[in-house]
Amino acid sequence: MTTSPSRRDSHQTDDHRAAGPRAMAEAYTFSARPTGSNQQSAAMDQAYADVVLLSQALSKSKRVTERMTGLLRTFDDRLVRLEKSVVGINRSTTGLSKTQKNVEAALVAIDALLGGHDSLERERAIITKGPRDDTTAYMASMTRLVTSLKQTGSITLNGPFQQTGVNSHESAAQMSSLLETGAKQIVQLFTAQVREASPERGIDLRGQTAETAQFPPIPAARMDSLRQLAAFVQKLPSPANRLDVEMQKAYGEIRGKFMAASLEPVAKQVVDFASSQQPLMTMPIWMDLFFAFGRSEYQLASSVFAPYAASFIFKQVVPPSLALFAETGQSINAIIKKDVSSSVAVAFEVYAALKTREDRFEELIRSKSGRRENELVDLAHAFRGSCLRSLPEFLEETRAWGIKQLTPTESMSAAIATMTVSVINFLRQLSLYQDAAEGFLQTLGDGNWTFGASRPGPTATRSKGQSLLSKYSDDVFYTLLGALDARTKSLRTQRAGVAAIFLLNNLTYVRREIHSSGIDDVLSEQCEDELNKRNRTAKAAYLEIIGPLVGCLMDAAPETGLLKTGLGAVGVGTGGRDRAEVKDRFARFNEALEEIENLHATAKLASTEPELKARLQDETNRMVLPTYKAFFNKHKTGEFTKNPSRYLRVDPDQLQARLNALYQ
């Protein structure tokens, strides 16, 4: 049966409603769509249906959101109620924790009280035996003691002993006493190890300088042990850790004695050499050794102990060496005062050395040790006084030496005089330390360095603008020349030949030393001219000693009274008178030659003057050999005597050899 359109539409509408919103929308759209509408109207209907569907979906989402919000509010309320329950439980737990800690502390205290006696006896057995070779076990025992004391509350680390209760006090006091005993034994072990590494005899520094000396360090294994012991005692609680200071003092005293023992033999050499004028070991060299040794000891102390303790330790190290330093300087100064002429050069050298080392002394010794005393300044002041006194005293001693009576030994010696050497050394020191010497002379005043009797004669004239040092040096030079002249006169009265050789030796030495050093810088030109003139005179006086050899071969002509030399002097006939004269000449020649040889054996030319010897040898040969050779050849047949060997003792070659031997 055919269904009508309206009925068909009604059935479609019911079906769409049953199919859901989208189906209804589609049905509505379809039913509402006019028959034969265009394509644009269909698109609009489709869009409208989509909007309706979206609106329905949003409504459904809103309902779901509201339901979830309600659930979350319910959960929040439940969490608040749960938090209130947890806070109560937490408060109960905190109280229980405190109770637990109190119980544990009480148990620890009870254990300490119950086991303290056993622990104390156990550690006492270890500590009373001493550390011996096993320091690790010993220090572990002491560490357990410290822990026990901390547990009883009797101490805090690095803190003092505290009384905590009547029952525990006695045990804690015993532990503390035992701990201090152990610390003392560690200090004793430390001291023994330091002493073992620091022999009492020191090290041999004789012949050494600051550049060549080696200061042997403490062996590495021993250093590790010393560091470990020092650090352990320092970390102990009071009063045991107070022994750290005792340990530092012991170390400083032992190393100080070791340092002084090493420097003492060198100091003795310095004093001995100052007495004998030997420049093998001088005060400046000793001071440099002292500074180098001190620097080494300071570094060593800094490596054994904490750096902050180095100054305190070094203050214990240096006193013995400083006392030795002051004593050595005072001994040298006493030598200078006792014999100014021989030691005045040493005074200038030591004074200059002290002044130039003031900064090093301040930096290396005083500042690092924190000392107020200044031994170097005190010595410098003392030597300054000696230098000032030495200027006039040296002139007076030089003058007095010239007129001093000769000893038997001096009367037969032509050696370079000790006073001559002293004057040259003194002038050399003046040239080396011109500024200091000029300052001393300004303190004395122009010309105030001479006494009336020692004031040089008119030869020592002054030039305009001449410095005080040059004036004084000229006075010293002319005083020496005057003393040598006086000495030569005394020698001449006993043996003329010795006097001539003595004067020649000394003047030659003075001339050579002045030209080879800086002495001529402080002397005027007048001094050099005077010295050259006196050297020529002394050389001529020496050649007069050789003159008798030639005089024996010379012939006096009665008719003229003139002396003829050379071949003319040997023209002797064969008569009896002539033969006697030939014998006499040979005899006198041989006698004169022996006398000259004996003279040179006693009064030798200075071995330090090879150039002088070479010149004198050449001139002697030229003066003697030609005449003797001619005379010898004339009479070598021996016709003038029945015993030729008695007179013809040497031929020309033998004579030359014997003459040359005088200058060897």
TrEMBL record:
Function: Involved in the secretory pathway as part of the exocyst complex which tethers secretory vesicles to the sites of exocytosis. Also plays a role in the assembly of the exocyst.
Subcellular location as annotated: Bud; Bud neck
Lineage of the organism: Eukaryota, Fungi, Dikarya, Basidiomycota, Pucciniomycotina
Primary location class: other
Gene name in the database record: Mo00984
Positions of region (Disordered): 1-22
Annotated ranges, domain Exocyst complex subunit Exo70 C-terminal: 295-660
GO biological process, one term: exocytosis
Family the UniProt entry places it in: Belongs to the EXO70 family.
GO cellular component, one term: cellular bud neck
Keyword Transport: yes
Official protein name in the record: Exocyst complex protein EXO70
A Pfam family it matches: Exo70_C
